Amino acid sequence: MRSTVRFAIAMLVIALVASACGGGGTGGGATAGAAKPTVKVGSTNFYEQGILGELYAQILENSGYTVERKFNLGNREIVEPALESGQIDVDAEYLATLLSFVDKNAKASTDPKQTAKDLQTALSAKKLTVLDFAAATDQNGFVVSKDTASKYSLKKLSDISGGSAQGQLVLGGPPECPSAQRPFCKPGLEQTYGIKFKDFKPLDAGGPLTVAALDGKQIDIGLLFTSDPTIVAKGFVLLDDDKHLQLSDNIAAVVRDDLLAKDDGTIKRLLNSISAKLSQDELNGMNKLVSVDKKDPKDVAKDWLKKQGLIK
Q1: Strands (E), the chain
Q2: What does the alpha-carbon distance between residue 94 and residue 19 come to, in Å, rounded to a whole number?
Q3: Is the dihedral of CA 44, 47, 52, 53 positive or negative?
Q4: How far apart, in whole angstroms, are the C-alpha atoms of residue 2 and residue 81?
Q5: Burial 135-155 (b: 16+ CB within 10 A, else e)
Q6: pLDDT band at 251; cut points 50, 70, 90
Q7: CB distance 160 to 166 below 8 Å
Q8: What is the C-alpha to C-alpha distance for residues 115 and 46, in angstroms, rounded to an integer?
């Protein structure tokens, strides 16, 4: 009888010790059955960032994480230090632009893999991690109308110099576009792609003047930003930068290392699953719904995540 009681007491002590130790975890990271960490998702202050913030927040909430939304904080000069200091844990960033911001001596690449690698090197000392990047970007892009694309069989920029459009198109863009100091505008198109233009019309930097000129056929090709919702709203064709003229401003989540250390890898997997599905067309479509159609970013993000099979 006494041996039975002693055995029961011993088993109870073992169970209590195991419970206190977290079930045998090794320490320093997430343990099996541990509570999910609260995640503070931040964003800068324009509609695209609100959409991306909602995508991150909702996919995490769907998996049982408590999320604190800290959106519309301001520009990168406010948001990036907030990420470093722990006021937020994660936000959506743009590879080349963030690299130039955190390392003034760095030279961003037109190759997103190389840019992501260089960015991680710059972020490591700040205890931040850049996750997988999406195909979607927010950078200089060149668009034509559907009629122009059809007339000259244009899908990518190299189609211009390689086909009947060579020497036939009027380019519109910011007044400084032809300058030698603007290698990602007219000089880059000429040198990287060998494109010859019929003329250049000074307008604005991806703004309403360029859109109106494209609409009114005053220009044939114009500079807009790749995630501009006007591209979808107006039915413009964004020509593929197939020779990689532009710096790689692909979208990627940047996360605090201490958050990842508290987690079992689920946060990284969930955020990477968004990047895997986020094409340029998908991003531009969501931007159009929010910016042009005035839909709520929460609803747009939820519908997109469901459509992609990322939440139920």
Answers
A1: 39-42, 67-70, 90-94, 128-137, 140-144, 170-173, 199-202, 221-225, 237-238, 250-256
A2: 43
A3: positive
A4: 64
A5: bbbbbbbbbbbeebbeebebe
A6: very high
A7: yes
A8: 24
d(CA 230, CA 47): 13
Tokens found for residue 8: 């029961």
CB-based burial of residue 270 (10 Å sphere; 0-12 exposed, 13-18 middle, 19+ buried)? buried
Query: Where would I find the beta strands (DSSP E) of 10-60?
Result: 39-42
Which residues are paired to 94 by β-bridges? 251
Q: Cα separation of 280 and 135, whole Å?
A: 6
CA distance 272 to 168: 42
Residue 43, CA distances (Å) to 77, 100, 157, 298 in order = 12, 19, 32, 14
| DSSP 8-state symbol, 140 | E
- Structure tokens that stand for 202 in this block: 């000074």
User: What is the distance between the alpha carbons of residues 50 and 21, in angstroms, rounded to a whole number?
Assistant: 40
What tens digit of pLDDT does each residue of 276-311 get? 999 999 999 999 999 999 999 999 999 999 999 999
- For the four alpha carbons of 297, 301, 303 and 307, in that order, the dihedral sign comes to positive
- The pTM score is 0.84
Alpha-carbon distance 113 to 190, whole Å?
25
Task: Report the alpha-carbon distance of residue 154 to residue 165 in Å, rounded.
Answer: 8
Residue 213 tokens read as 């000129």
In the predicted structure, residue 13 carries a pLDDT above the cut 90: no
Q: What are the residues whose beta carbons fall under 8 Å from the beta carbon of 301, sequence distance 6 or more?
A: 51, 54, 55, 57, 58, 286
Closest CA to 253 of 276, 230, 236: 276
Amino acid at 226: T
Three-state DSSP state, 104? coil
User: Containing H/E element for 129?
Assistant: strand 128-137
- 81 closest CA partner among 260, 249, 247, 254: 254
| Mode of pairing for the β-strands spanning 199-202 and 170-173 | parallel
